[in-house]
Amino acid sequence: MRKVMETVVQFIPDKHPDPLMRKHGYIGKPLRRVDGPLKVKGEARFTAEFDIEDVAYAALVHSTIAKGRVTRIDASEAKRMPGFIAIVTHENAPKMKNPKLLNVMDLAQGVGGSDLPILQDDKVHYDGEPVAIVVAETLEQAEHAAWLVRVEYEAETQSVSFDALKEKAVVPSDVLGEEPTVKLGDADKALSEAAFKVDHVYRTPRHNHNAIEPHATIASWGDDGNLTVFDSTQFVNGFKHQLATVFSLKPKQVRVISPFVGGAFGGKWSLWCNSVLCAAAAKVTERPVKLALSREGVFRVVGGRTLSEQRVALAAGKDGRFLGLIHTGTTATTTHANYPEQFSLTPRHLYASENMFAGQKIVNLDTVANTWMRAPGESIATFALESAIDELAHAMKMDPIALRRINEPQKDPTKDTEFSMRNLVEAYPRGADRFGWSRRNPEPRSQREGAWLIGQGVATAYYPFFRWPATVRVRISSDGTAIVQAAAHEMGMGTATVQIQHAAERLGLPVDKVSFHYGDSALPDSPITAGGSSQTVTIVAAVQLAVEKAHRELLKLAHRNGDSPLAGARYERIEARDGGLFRTDEAKGETYSAILRRARQAFIEVEKSTGQAMEIMKYSMASYGAQFCEARVNEETGEVRLSRWLGSFDCGRIVNPKTAASQFRGGIIMGIGMALTEETMFDERRGRIMNRSLAEYHVPVHLDVPPIEIIYNDIPDEHAPLGARGLGEIGITGAAAAIANAIFHATGKRVRDLPITLDKLL
Known about the structure:
The chain has 762 residues and is of the alpha+beta class. The protein has 18 helices and 30 strands.
């Protein structure tokens, strides 16, 4: 297993090449995905598809109570089954430490989905928690043997009802490192005295992760005591550190490989117990072990989005200016994860208000730990806040776009810092013009076609900017090619494509001469993939520094030889183009190949790291957008059909329009699911998820998705690397509110409780 190397992707020249392949200046061009051919031909290997010699297969035995202890495990029948190898329980599991929870000051150390002990005692903390792992020669044998294991429990009183406990909710110590509450002036007084006001409660349900690829792990221990793990993770570096902690190893003794990931959306950021259990089973059996979770297993082991209950109160003067803004509420979490989904952070930075109060409380439940899910906090916050703004606009008989424009802040409302760049007021009119907003009759129930009531809605999209420290290695070879290496991931968002585009432009090389190596913790450390929509700008910043260092080293080589056209040239007076370095004021220069061959070097290799993103401390940085939606509601059946969508975004520079549009659309589609179909059904008597399958947990399908048009400002943010800001999560924000607002406009019925199912419209 140790011979397996990182994933390598590059552009393959066509017989009839795209003109872009023959030009430099790749940033902003819609180049096709470099990983696309591998995927459409079925040659891209995902974790569970690796064929490892002598591998055994594992299956989990899940608890059937929410709280208590295991009193007896009877595996006698399972042990008699053909192919049975071993069962690992708390009685024979290797000694393991607890995973570590999130440390916002040191993300490189990774994050455990929970800090519970894993098979170290007889306690049960939630329904579905693994109490044993069975290993057999085949997958079918492992699953059958696990089904035959009989477990007896001593149940304890569980806390699983949010409604029963929300009156006892407490204020958390912090919300992702920020103060749990923010207060400006007296929002309650402003609300009581305002000429116009709205004050309502909005509810969002639990959501569960359903990436197309369920979680999978292959673990193997070497004779040297080192651990190699293939895992469908979006954070190989974090998994390396977490697994080292759990098994009392040094990080260099752990290697995590993640070549392709079939979606993650936050669910594969944290180290969940299935990965640890697979490694533990491999240690006990002294064989490589593969554990691929079923769809139902993902529901039981991997956390999802918490439910929320949010109060939004808005007070406005006759001119529409906000005099008071209150956004408070409660979410659920667990004592073994303690993650309060940060909905209260969004209202702090989005609109100007003379008085503001934003904060949240939490209740702790005996459930699988909740976790990050695309735009955690912001997605549910924008549903509540943007619905309330629409309600206020209707009460004031004001256009909802005009109301938002009136309350556009000049500075960050609570941080009191300048925006690095904020062109939301430009995105709105561009979107409105393209969507045809001016043709909208503002009166609810004013448009129909037969039994179908038609309405249009709008909402603001918002997601903060993040950038983490990262390290990148760049190698330039004498054959005129270059390699960029980083422990990054490709989950379908276009990371590899964009990084090759950027590196090729900065190196002055054709894109088919640059390759990107990723998906292996043995490569230079990189941060969480898609964590805060940050991977592109994070790696771009490191590539920029590494290429500069490489160019300086190459110039030094050229200086050593007086015959070089670059001899005596200053770094500030050279540029990269045509496969090498050239003087900016004249045509003199030479290729990388010529420089290296003269120096009798096969290649030059450099490594460079970035530090903390100081721009985030100095400025208020975020991506923004305006979501426009047209909905049709059948007056007789309550059925909702979305007929048109337009997203107008302000995310800085767009590096690749093709991959960017795909990300915007993907987020919007998740927002459609959030608004209309997705809901985790939870039995508050037993603490059990009831709809643990794609047959019963309804994600959007093709017929649920309307034509989605994407436009964007494409104005570079001079304070962000390459002028770009994150766009992977912005698409889901505001989407649910735009749908709810369109449905209100169509029917006159305001739904404040997601999902908006037909029973709520009849």
